[in-house]
Structures are given as structure tokens and as C-alpha cells.
Write a structure and sequence with these properties.
The complex is a heterodimer of chains A (about 110) and B (about 110). Chain A has about 110 residues and is mainly β. Chain A has no helices and eleven strands. In chain A, a hairpin with a 5-residue loop joins β7 and β8 (about 70-75). Chain A is globular and about 50 Å long. The termini of chain B are far apart. Classes of the chains: A mainly beta (about 110), B mainly beta (about 110). The interface between A and B is medium-sized, with 24 and 22 residues.
Chain lengths: ~110, ~110
């Protein structure tokens, strides 16, 4: 099936550091979405991207829809303890007359004490 | 607007039993998707319903089924539970298929 390659799988960072993660695919996507999941909870939408080249910010978070429509990145500036969690990328892929939402495997963010 | 609600939040069952989970989407949303998430794993897509019809289906055995009602509320059922069915089951709603999904808090199922 279709896959999104999300990297890194996990990140160990110091509080205050900037964080960068990305998703790539060999397929062209119509939208890119970034979610964050806290333990035992459902994922929460952080940023939605709808146009190639689009750069969108949400507070300390910035995400971009790659110009080739095959990739996206998420940056977090000046990380704080509540940024800990799992970040998922997802993209809408058009297949025949249907849109299928494809998910990355997640990036686990851990902040070192 | 109220978010996606899922009931129950926690459930303990034994092998061989069956279980029904419920999801109420955001008001006005007509598409509901279900996912299974096991510890340390990503989201495994189960199925998507829109206008009471299953539109997409993931790669799960027939023991997993779902339905959607005319008010867009959805239920998923797992029959003949196995230990490996222990997971967090997430429901997400969207305005229609192909639109941004918003998740509920999940139902954590433990099969003993």
C-alpha cells in the first residue's frame, strides 16, 4: 500500500532546542496534516496544509507543504516540556474517485531533563 | 462546538466475547473513520463511513465491522475477541471524505 516515510522515529532533545521532522513519499498528496498525540489520548490537529509551497505557522510550530507535493516538514522552535508526545504526519492521496488518508509512523519527541 | 465523543472510554473484555464501541462526530460532520492503535504503534486504519455507507476499508479481518446511522453517529463491533485486539480505538470525524479529520479521545480496550 501507499506509505509515508516519517523521520526521525524518535528525538531526544534539550529544553529550548529547535526540533525538525519530516515526511516523504513517492506519491503526490493533495493535503498534508500534522497531529500531536499525548499518551492515552487521540491525536490533535496542529497544522493543515492545502497548497504546494504553503508555509503555515501555529505559535512555535511551522510546517511546509513541499513544492513537489511529495513531502512536508514540521519545525518546533524553542521546545518546552509540554511539547513531549508523538507527532504524526498524514496526507490525502487521491485514488480513483476516492481520497485516502495515509499516515506516517510517528516521531516520538522526548525532552531530556 | 462539541468535539468527537467516544464511549466507553475504557473497557475490559475476555477472549471470545464481542464488543461494540460508539462514536459521535462533530455536529455537521458526515464522515467517520476508525483506527486501531497498539502500544508504540502508529494508526492502523480500520474503515471509513460516509452517509451510512462504508467508503474505505483497511486490512483487518472480518471480525471487525462497523456501521453508521442517519445522524452520522457510528459504531464499530469486534466479534470473538483475541488478546491482540487490546488497543486504543480511535474515531475521527470530518465534514466529508477527503477532508481534515478530528479525533475523539479513544476507547481503550483490554482483552484478558
Amino acid at each position: 500500500g501507499q506509505q509515508l516515510n516519517q523521520s526521525p522515529q524518535s528525538m531526544f532533545i534539550q529544553e529550548g532546542e529547535d526540533v525538525s521532522m519530516n515526511c516523504t513519499s513517492s506519491s503526490i498528496f493533495n493535503t498534508w496534516l500534522w497531529y500531536k498525540q499525548d499518551p492515552g489520548e487521540g491525536p490533535v490537529l496542529l497544522i493543515a496544509l492545502y497548497k504546494a509551497g504553503e508555509l503555515t505557522s501555529n505559535g512555535r510550530l511551522t510546517a511546509q507543504f513541499g513544492i513537489t507535493r511529495k513531502d512536508s516538514f514540521l519545525n518546533i522552535s524553542a521546545s518546552i516540556p509540554s511539547d513531549v508526545g508523538i507527532y504524526f504526519c498524514a496526507g490525502h492521496l487521491q485514488m480513483d474517485s476516492n481520497y485516502q488518508l495515509i499516515w506516517g509512523a510517528g516521531t516520538k519527541l522526548i525532552i531530556k531533563p | 462546538k462539541a468535539g468527537v465523543t467516544q464511549t466507553p472510554r475504557y473497557l475490559i473484555k475476555t477472549r471470545g466475547q464481542q464488543v461494540t464501541l460508539s462514536c459521535s462526530p462533530i455536529s455537521g460532520h458526515r464522515s467517520v473513520s476508525w483506527y486501531q492503535q497498539t502500544p508504540g504503534q502508529g494508526l492502523q486504519f480500520l474503515f471509513e463511513y460516509f452517509s451510512e455507507t462504508q467508503r474505505n476499508k483497511g486490512n483487518f479481518p472480518g471480525r471487525f465491522s462497523g456501521r453508521q446511522f442517519s445522524n452520522s453517529r457510528s459504531e464499530m463491533n469486534v466479534s470473538t475477541l483475541e488478546l491482540g485486539d487490546s488497543a486504543l480505538y480511535l474515531c475521527a470525524s470530518s465534514l466529508t471524505t477527503g477532508k481534515t479529520q478530528y479525533f475523539g479521545p479513544g476507547t481503550r480496550l483490554l482483552v484478558l
